[in-house]
Amino acid sequence: MIVEQHTALQRGFQFLAGMEALGLSQPSLARTFRGVTELTSKISVALQTGPYLLGDSYSAADLLVQSPYAWFKDATPDDPAIRDWVARCGARASVARTMTSDKAMMDQAAAAA
Known about the structure:
By secondary structure, the chain is mainly α. The chain has a single domain, classed as Glutathione S-transferase Yfyf (Class Pi), Chain A, domain 2, CATH 1.20.1050. Helix content is 67%, strand content 0%. It has six helices and no strands. The protein has helices at 2-16, 27-33, 36-46, 60-71, 80-90, 93-112. The radius of gyration is 15 Å and the shape is globular.
């Protein structure tokens, strides 16, 4: 169980490290964390082994990596396997509840501003 948790968190970090943090464009960051093309490739390869990043079970890696695509749908790669995975993760009851709750809080904050 501990090894599985470690693997999920490690994989989640590896995927997230490829996302363009804060829109920074710095050569040393690019060498270290790579870019969108490499990230898309890693996700696509991971999804060849099962419906989720680590195989048959939803994990913290899926939660961490899918959520930016849930919020920024235009950033989702044009890859059918990745789009299906994003939809599959988003269809989970817990994810749908969280997204609904977060949107309500954001709407409330916007109305109060």
